[in-house]
């Protein structure tokens, strides 16, 4: 999900090329949140840019060059699916017995794109995802006149059962649309621009299905490595609600129909 601000290529003191993202008067903790997500994903084995510097108004990271040429690894889509599955599984395995859903440790401001979201730690996925994010974001959209008023009662009707079988908390990228996955000249995938937190792995899967851009081999590689619980396809709409609601709030009512459809489909399953 795109963020406002400016980007530029710079050189560090040692001559290394780097990528700088800047935002004047950035919200509190904006770039610190992104940097913490990159570092957390990297510690779990994901391929992410190194963080060189983070301040209140800018972030400097390793420069990664995308490449669309042919003749790289045999199947980068299958490989990416396997890597994402290993990332999710590793985070589940490394989670402490009392790991909560929501924020990474040490953070108190959280964002999806340019929108503030609530990632206060909670003991259940339902409270983290539905109570703290889906319902408040729906209320904001209705109050702004961007969604019809029935959306609030629909959001409040979502139950824990709509989220599927319980799973341990998983570190998710949190904003895994195709633009936040880069493929380099060697055909290897990199993750950028995370909204990283402890959530449910189907959040990443659902986001990948929201706007397209991932080949079918991604899901083959993923499910071969770390199968999803039965019915995951039917749960895609509920796990798409947070990004859809953020799109409504950031970009307007053009996303209202798809958001209402996701609410309706969720309640019908």
TrEMBL record:
Pfam families for the chain: Fructosamin_kin
Alphabetically ordered keywords of this record: Kinase, Membrane, Transferase, Transmembrane, Transmembrane helix
Transmembrane stretches, start-end: 238-257
Family: Belongs to the fructosamine kinase family.
Protein name as it appears in the record: Fructosamine-3-kinase
Native species: Enteractinococcus fodinae
Lineage, broadest ranks: Bacteria, Bacillati, Actinomycetota, Actinomycetes, Micrococcales
